[in-house]
Amino acid sequence: MQSRWFDFGGDTIVRADKYIRLASDRPSRTGWIFSKVPLTATNWEIEFEFKIHGKGSLHADGMALWLTKQRATGGPVFGCADNFEGLGIFFDTYKNNRPGVTFPYVMAMLGDGKTSYDKNNDGKDQELAGCSARGIRGSNVATKARLTYFQDVSLKLELRYKSEEEWTLCFETTGVNIPSVSYLGFSAETGELSDDFDIISVETKNLYSTQASDSNKGSTGTQASSGKGKGKGKKNRTGSGGSGWLWFFVKVLLGAGVLGGGYVGWTYYRNSQRHSRFD
Questions:
Q1: Cα separation values, 124 from 96, 119, 121, 212, Å
Q2: Is residue 9 a contact partner of residue 30, using CB atoms and an 8 Å limit?
Q3: What are the distances in angstroms from CA 92 to CA 11, 113, 136, 228, 249?
Q4: Using one digit for the tens of pLDDT, what is the confidence trace for 67-125?
Q5: Prediction pTM value
Q6: Residue 144 to residues 160, 165, 187, 205, 248: CA-CA distances in angstroms?
Q7: Cβ neighbours, 10 Å, residue 114
Q8: Contact present, 68 and 82 (Cβ < 8 Å)
């Protein structure tokens, strides 16, 4: 099975009517999925729904969101290559050696292409920012994360796992510089202990600052650029802004009846609508 919009590998299972399972609830599983189209926006927001769950009371290891120069390469860091250049957001469900820290733990690492992730100490020395997120695994509500970035200004991660109406700030940090051309990806891995790691849906959008010069001094007004896309009754309207990178959309819950039972849209919009489909 191939797609013009993304690559996947390892033990990843694509069930377009339900989910993309990066790693299954079995020992020693790894999987990844990466866009073929780079994200080139200066300011953006990524929101995705995911699910971490399994049958056992003991579970591991975790999953990751990637925005890196490299793409589609498996490895030891939650299913992807080490020594990456760009941003990794790690949803770590198993504590190796971080006394005093409650797990699951969510952390960001800004890789320089040379520094390795220290798995034995759960990335303590590589952490840019992070938070404990007890309850994010096996949550009874649709679990979501929202990552917002303004170049050289701020990076913010919010989580929704306590209730449908409540977004919890995980971290907000300043002075972050992510590579201007990055590929969006997700990965996961299990060890002797395991879990199911599922991606349900992903949306990204370009953001425009209305107070760019004052963004370090207080709150920043933003506008989201748009395009048109369909995904299970979801519509997005086209806006004006002249950006070449307007809308990059993933929706996994698209229903059956598509060729081979599999349909995942990784779509790239420039003032027109396209529908992704497996060739």
A1: 11, 9, 6, 33
A2: no
A3: 19, 21, 11, 35, 26
A4: 999 998 999 999 999 999 999 999 999 999 999 999 999 999 999 999 999 999 999 99
A5: 0.77
A6: 5, 11, 16, 16, 18
A7: 8
A8: no
